[in-house]
């Protein structure tokens, strides 16, 4: 895949970039390693000042950065601005809390282990490789970079090849803010060269957000090198609606959760599971709301649904819907590629999805929702868990006992009750089963790339 910006709204090539040579990659890793050696000896107050400055710079670049996101991957301008501001918030979150999250933990009664005192402390590991996707070109990176740098690590980024301008922007942001030069470096390389970077002895760990095959590949390489890896992979998140739910709020949130980022988020609600008592009412309102979404130029403030980010992604989504239709599924709205320039796909609602359809088991990465009817909460939970994924989930109910039933029973890294799955700096993000290993964000996220060192004193 060429390293290039192609406007998803038109399909036109905007700019193409030359991949870094082996010598350039080596120099950038060397620069990151040198920056780490400087970073590890700085105090939290110094790093915090740098991170706050980086957040200020990002906010100052709000309009230009948002337009860059729209141009490179097609998200609406409103959501692009939201992504930029979320990054600044995440950066300040770690700037203000890193010292607290990484403070030493003393053993309460050291006499029991024959010590005068004992503690565990967190120390940085070194240069961490981040392999990141295109769907949130800034946020996916910042939610790694902010905690990693605040812990004293350095980072090198292999970004998706269709968002090179975002990669180049991030390459300079932390230098501009005052971090040691090279603390964060982007590598313009194809996926085929990731292995060489990960096997470099100066690179001590990796984090990847992306597809399950990519995650398995990086985990295999990291394992063979005895290096730590954090993986956030795919999701086929259930969105369960029970009879006691606020139906209007559930419908509105289901639409937003399925179509946010043009339906291209790992934690989008992809399988809507509705109790039979309210199924018909929900389906009618949900279909109408999906059908009413304004599709168009993502730079237009009025647009609610823009194009898919890549032509391949459009083809993959269309194949899943076509396969479901050919096997008997019913389409209540959408379901056909739009006859216009760019990679647009309408908001689509599909019912009657069965196990013999690819859509039952595969992740639909675009604005297509499968809606299921279930007889009771037991069937709802069974269907929700009948997937190889386990990233996030949502349940709508005003019954406290029913809420606990789903919170405890759902096989997922998160459960949102009467709300929409969103990543917050305050909450850990990650999944179970094929959705990944490890956690990002919160205290757990910053600790992932630290050496937890035990100290015993006689």
Description of the structure:
The chain has about 450 residues and is α/β, with parallel strands linked by helices. It has helices at about 20-40, 45-60, 60-75, 75-100, 140-150, 165-175, 195-200, 210-225, 245-260, 275-290, 310-325, 360, 375-385, 400-410, 440-445; strands at about 5, 10-15, 105, 115-125, 125-130, 155-160, 185, 205-210, 230, 235-240, 270-275, 330-335, 350, 370-375, 395, 415, 435, 450-455. Strands 12-13-14-11-10-15-16 form a seven-stranded mixed beta sheet, with helices on both faces. Strands 7-6-5-8-9-17 form a six-stranded mixed beta sheet, with helices on both faces. Helix 2 (about 45-60) runs antiparallel to helix 4, helix 2 (about 45-60) crosses helix 6 and helix 9 (about 245-260) crosses helix 10 (about 275-290). The protein is globular. The mean pLDDT is about 100.
């Amino acid at each position: 895949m060429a390293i290039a910006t192609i406007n998803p709204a038109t399909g036109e090539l905007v700019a193409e970039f030359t991949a870094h040579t082996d010598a350039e990659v080596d120099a950038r890793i060397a620069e990151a390693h040198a920056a780490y050696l400087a970073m590890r000896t700085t105090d939290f107050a110094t790093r915090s000042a740098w991170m706050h400055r980086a957040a200020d710079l990002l906010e100052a670049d709000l309009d230009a950065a948002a337009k860059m996101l729209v141009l490179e991957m097609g998200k609406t301008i409103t959501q692009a601005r939201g992504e930029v501001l979320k990054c600044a918030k995440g950066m300040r979150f770690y700037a203000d809390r890193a010292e607290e999250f990484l403070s030493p933990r003393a053993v309460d009664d050291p006499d029991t282990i024959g010590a005068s005192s004992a503690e565990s402390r967190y120390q940085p590991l070194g240069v961490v490789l981040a392999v990141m996707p295109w769907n949130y070109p800034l946020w996916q990176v910042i939610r790694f970079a902010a905690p990693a740098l605040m812990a004293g690590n350095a980072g090198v980024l292999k970004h998706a090849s269709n968002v090179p301008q975002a990669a180049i922007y991030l390459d300079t942001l932390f230098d501009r803010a005052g971090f040691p030069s090279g603390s964060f470096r982007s590598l313009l390389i194809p996926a085929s060269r990731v292995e060489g970077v990960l096997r470099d002895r100066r690179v001590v760990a990796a984090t990847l957000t992306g597809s399950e095959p990519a995650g398995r590949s990086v985990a295999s390489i990291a394992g063979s090198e005895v290096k730590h890896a954090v993986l956030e992979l795919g999701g086929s998140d259930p969105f369960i609606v029970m009879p006691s739910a606020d139906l209007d709020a559930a419908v509105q949130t289901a639409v937003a959760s399925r179509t946010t980022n043009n339906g291209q988020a790992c934690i989008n609600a992809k399988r809507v599971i509705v109790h039979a008592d309210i199924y018909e009412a929900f389906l009618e309102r949900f279909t109408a709301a999906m059908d009413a979404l304004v599709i168009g130029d993502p730079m237009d403030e009025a647009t609610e649904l823009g194009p898919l980010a890549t032509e391949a992604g459009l083809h993959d989504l269309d194949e899943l819907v076509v396969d479901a239709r050919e096997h008997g599924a019913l389409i209540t709205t959408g379901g056909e590629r739009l006859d216009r320039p760019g990679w647009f796909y309408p908001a689509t609602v599909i019912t009657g999805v069965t196990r013999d359809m690819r859509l039952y088991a595969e992740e639909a990465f675009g604005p297509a929702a499968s809606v299921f009817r279930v007889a009771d909460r037991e069937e709802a939970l069974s269907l929700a868990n009948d997937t190889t994924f386990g990233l996030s989930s949502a349940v709508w109910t005003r019954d406290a006992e029913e809420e606990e039933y789903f919170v405890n029973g759902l096989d997922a890294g998160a459960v949102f009750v009467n709300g929409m799955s969103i990543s917050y700096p305050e909450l850990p993000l990650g999944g179970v089963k094929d959705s990944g290993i490890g956690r990002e964000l919160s205290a757990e996220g910053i600790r992932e790339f630290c050496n937890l060192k035990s100290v015993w004193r006689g």
